[in-house]
Amino acid sequence: MMHYGSPEFVPEGLKNEMHLGDHVRLGDGPVTFDIQYQDLVNDQGLSLEVLGNVDGSEVSLLTYYCFDQDPHYFYGPQERGDRKNIDRITEGDPVEWTLRQLRRRLPDLVERAGQPELARSMNVEALAQTVGELEETVRRIAREDRVTVKHNRGDVVFEAGPVRIGVEDRIPGIAVHVLGDVHGEEMELLAFDCFTVDPHYHYGPRNKNERRYVDIAATPDPLRWAMDLLKGGKLASMLERAGYHDHAARLNPATVAEVLPEVESLAFKLRAARSDYSE
């Protein structure tokens, strides 16, 4: 069973967009913990694997993927396919939920993973210090290793009410930035990277920089696609999706509609002037 928590799942052309942090191992008894931060193609977050010593061999007991968009975990080796989802609405932060489960219910979880003898032999008191160190380490890695993207605001920026739209000619293509003020500071709310290779767009950073790729087989002109989205009235709903509800509510469609022809004209003019562009 292939799983996108592992590098093998990611298409070869997109592996340069995936960044895996160093593994951190904690514990030296019958149960150890392996921690890693993963920035994948469309998601990111901390992974935590619980490993056990069973008859002299190391086996996977539990694996938690505390991701932004699709948090979930596995009982036993992932090949078994015993996957459970973590509902952010009911359980809150996946990192804190996972730590709480390990602190309070680790023997029960290990038994559920198919290792009842190991679960019965576990000394919970002896593990308390390791679990305390685990909590501190996990929270630090989840905080410090988060991947964020900060683009330029654009070569030319157009005012459009509560947002600004910047157009940038960059390598390897045209980028369109949607900007807005958050607590007195300008932030990038959305970005469309209409590149010749691996075109994509960003919701974020409030939505933790969710990155989505454009399928050029289905959408051969990402710049035209992005402009049609904006002209078609999708800006407000995309801002909502990114977590910027106030900006979406304050949008005036008429103001945006007045600005977009200039944005579109400049974007296509810059693309046409590029040496790497051909019809």
Protein model, in words:
By secondary structure, this protein is an alpha+beta fold. The chain folds into two domains: 7-144, no CATH class; 156-272. It contains eight helices and 13 strands. The protein has helices at 88-91, 94-112, 116-121, 124-144, 222-231, 235-242, 245-250, 253-272; strands at residues 19-20, 24-26, 31-39, 44-54, 57-67, 72-75, 83-85, 156-160, 163-170, 173-182, 185-195, 200-203, 210-213. Strands 1, 2, 3, 4, 5, 6 and 7 form a seven-stranded antiparallel β-sheet that branches. A six-stranded antiparallel β-sheet has the order 8-9-10-11-12-13, with helices on one face. Strand 3 and strand 4 form a beta hairpin.
Tell me the β content: 25-35%
- Using the CA coordinates, give the radius of gyration: 23 Å
Count of extended strands: 13
The best one-word shape is elongated
The largest β sheet comes out as: 7 strands, antiparallel
Helix vs. strand class = alpha+beta
What oligomeric state do the depicted chains represent?
single chain
Q: Which percent range fits the helix content?
A: 25-40%
Uncertain segments of ≥5 residues (pLDDT<50)?
A: 1-16
* Domain count: 2
Mean pLDDT over the residues: 89
Distance between the termini: 41 Å
Tally of individual helices: 8
Topology order in helix (H) and strand (E) letters: EEEEEEEHHHHEEEEEEHHHH
What does the secondary structure layout of this molecule look like, with pairings?
Layout: E1 19-20, E2 24-26, E3 31-39, E4 44-54, E5 57-67, E6 72-75, E7 83-85, H1 88-91, H2 94-112, H3 116-121, H4 124-144, E8 156-160, E9 163-170, E10 173-182, E11 185-195, E12 200-203, E13 210-213, H5 222-231, H6 235-242, H7 245-250, H8 253-272
Antiparallel strand pairs: 1-3, 2-3, 3-4, 4-5, 5-6, 6-7, 8-9, 9-10, 10-11, 11-12, 12-13
Helix pairs in contact: 2-4, 5-8
